[in-house]
Amino acid sequence: MEKALQISTISFDGDMTLWDFLKVMRHSLKQTLMELRKHVQTPRASKLTVDEMIAIRDRLAEEVKGEVWSLLEIRRRAFERTLEHVGHPDKDLAAHLNAVYRKHRYGDIELYPDVIPTFDALAPHFKLGLLSNGNTYPENCGLDGRFAFVVFSQDVQVEKPDPKIFQITAERAGCDLTEMLHVGDSLKSDVMGAKNVGAPSVWLNRDRLRNDTDIRPDYEITSLTEIPEIIGIRRKNKTCQ
Ligand SMILES: [Mg+2]
Prior knowledge:
By secondary structure, the protein is of the alpha/beta class. The protein has helices spanning 21-39, 43-47, 50-63, 71-85, 91-107, 115-122, 153-156, 163-173, 187-196, 227-240, and strands at 9-12, 127-132, 149-152, 180-184, 201-204, 219-221. 33% of the residues are buried.
């Protein structure tokens, strides 16, 4: 008979699992672009798009990968590049744009509606934590005090799916990896990362995408509200043995 999992701890991914990162990122860049155009009136500034700003940032992030871990610093440098791109290099303005971006990036973030009800249901029974390759700290998104442990790749300088970051997370949680259920939207970063260290995994597939990889999660869900049921079933199995 399959050995039932004994789960004491649940680690959650952040971006696209607890909040819609892409939506708030694009919205924040749009606000920043409007601010940029107040200060810069070159033809290139008037043609600049959010997609171009994303491409400039992503190219820069690739260039400094493994050297610069602070995502806000990468973003600030990306605004410097963006200003160079529109023919108006200006470090002070880049810092100002970064502040505008940050104000919207954190101020306008919205949790998915299933987050709080799920946390309320799980918190009395499990230790909950956050394991993120991003930079939205609990106090920036209305989740202050909700987590027993928090691990950010930019702080520990290793990122999912590297086994090291899962080991650091289990150490901070004070549990064995086999009893830490990891929940995330990325098959590669979250599911494969967890599997590689023997942690049970949940693939959150909000958009019901087809899994055309060979990465197999232990569970697949379309809403976080399914988690208590998954664990409830597991507990029942354990009681039966
Ligand atoms: Mg994610």
